[in-house]
Every structure is written in C-alpha cells, then in structure tokens.
Amino acid sequence: MLHIDPSPITTGFSEPFLEKQAFLGTNNLFETILVKSINERHANVSGCFSCCRCYSDKIRVENRNIIEVSCNGLLNCNFCEVLPNSNLELFPEDFIIVQQDDSLEVAQVKLIGEIVKLKRHYFGLFGEELPKVDRKATVEDLERIRKNIQDEEKAIPIFRSAIEKYNLNMKLVSIHYQFDRKKLFFFYTSDGRVDFRELAKGLASEFKTRIELRQIGVRDEAKKVGGVGSCGREYCCISFLTSFKRITTQLANEQNLLANMGKLSGPCGKLKCCLSFEVDS
What we know:
Elements: H1 15-24, H2 26-42, E1 66-70, E2 79-81, E3 95-100, E4 103-111, H3 114-123, E5 132-136, H4 139-165, E6 171-177, E7 183-189, H5 197-207, E8 210-215, H6 218-225, H7 236-239, H8 249-254
Parallel strand pairs: 7-8
Antiparallel strand pairs: 1-2, 1-4, 3-4, 3-5, 6-7
Helix pairs in contact: 1-2
C-alpha cells in the first residue's frame, strides 16, 4: 500500500519567502529552488548544467540583466541585455524589440532570471557585446510584424522564380524580414558553393532593400523547419541543443547499435544527435 508522508517538503527557504514566491507563481518558485540547488552544488564553478561536459575552470558570473531570446535576425546570438534604466518587466513568450548596431529586430523572450546567468556561466560566456532590448512590442509593432510575415510569404515565389532564371542549385528554407525592413534574409541549402552575385542584385532591385543570402546545413534546416522525431518528441535541435556536435558511426558502434543503422538517421538525413548523449566526454 502506498504511504504518503504528510510532513511538509523542506526547501531551505523561510516561510515568508515561500509565500511571496507562491504569490508570483509556481513556475517562479520552481526556478528559484532549482537555481539555489545548482548554486549550492557547484559553488560558482562551472559544472554539468546540461549533462554534456564539465568545466574545471572558474568563470566569472555576469551581473548584467541578460535574457535568452529566440530571433531569426540575431544570427549566432541567443542573448540580449536589458539596460538597468529601462524599467522593463519581461516574461517568457513576451515579444520585444531589440536594437543591434543601427537596426531594430523583433524577438521573443525564452528565459529570464538567474537561470540565464547559470546557463551563460556553463557556456563560458562573459562580457561580450550583446544586442540591447529597446522596448516591449506594442500593438502597432505587432501589426508591423504581421505585415512583414505576409511579405515574407509573398517573397517565396519570387525567390524561386529567380533561382530558376539564374539556374542555381538552391533550396529555399525560410525568409525573414528585419523588423525595420532594412535587411531581408534568405536561408537556403545547397550541395556546394553557389555564386549568387547576380541573384542578389536581382533580389535587391525587386525588394528595394539590402539582401543577405545565408547558406545553412541540413541540421540547421531541420532546426528551422521543426517537427517530431521517431521518439515522439520534438527535435532535440529545437528544444534544447545550442550547437551541433560531430556524430560518427563510431558512436553507434560503441553503443552496439550498428545492427540498426537504418534507424539511426534523423529527418535531416544525418546521424541522430542523440547518439552522443550517453557517450562520456
């Protein structure tokens, strides 16, 4: 017979503190307990934050207010800085306007608070220049975003007609308009290098803005398109992977999986990233 202990769970926090956190929400309370547990275990030394590898070096922890975001236009950057005098109260899934150099971009908040500091600490990130959060997206901003998305859809047949005209071996993956429309991104895959100089000139003439053509790999394509893997869960590259490791058949051999080689390829056609999850660093 199942016996449930009626005694309260001990978290190490005072009762007034827990009452305050419960008022803010259960997710906030859970995150607070998680951060406290990680800090106590690792004592400001980078460790197994995402169960991939351990760092022995001591890395400084940021004191800036930094959030993790999702944005197609902020290439190779998943973090933004909230300036101390902005007085912005941000939450996950909020849409924000971000300033990078002399342009504005729209992003969506993924993660806030101390957990972001610990994540950056694990990755060894400190002190680099980051895009700045300009403001929360207003109703007018959201209408502008909707118009940009509509124009992205209209640009798809134009791009495909252009690559046929110039006879280029390119597969369009996605299109992204910068929020202020100063730049239009085309993400594509190809078997080799492509000379797209004439294509870029034609697209710039058509759309009257700066064109940026970005060749990406098939794994990056899967990350942008999204989907559900054979395990029944969302692709790892979408849900939590921040970079791609080199996956070889040796990893499958070490786990005695070579007999099922036909099942080891992901939707991108490459060996599944999860083959590296149980291999010692």
